[in-house]
Design brief:
mainly beta; 53% strand; 1 helix
Length: 101
């Protein structure tokens, strides 16, 4: 009887454990670092996630110097829908805009 209880408990634990899929593959990756003046990168993976971002220094050398970043990332949620977040990050903070399709 103890063996049956132990096997049932083990089966319950195994079914409750998070399911792991295969590793995502990188399908595309581009990266350009232009030093102090800015950067840009983008990538796409097989799971499917994608991201692109660029940043540049505005008003260099002034009292109003700031890095401005523009970007977007997309992923497929557990609901099966594609979610996209576009954003700007600058002296006014992080400003996201979402879209679901």
């Amino acid at each position: 009887m103890k063996v049956v209880i132990a096997l049932c408990a083990l089966a319950a634990l195994a079914s409750a454990a998070p399911q792991q899929g295969g590793e995502a593959q990188i399908l595309r990756f581009e990266n350009e670092n232009i030093g102090v003046d800015g950067y840009k990168f983008n990538f796409e993976t097989s799971d499917p996630i994608s991201r692109s971002e660029s940043g540049e220094l505005k008003n260099a050398g002034s009292d109003h110097e700031a890095v401005v970043v523009h970007g977007e990332y997309t992923y497929k949620g557990p609901d099966g829908k594609t979610h996209t977040v576009s954003f700007v990050a600058d002296e006014n903070g992080y400003q996201p805009h979402t879209q679901t399709s």
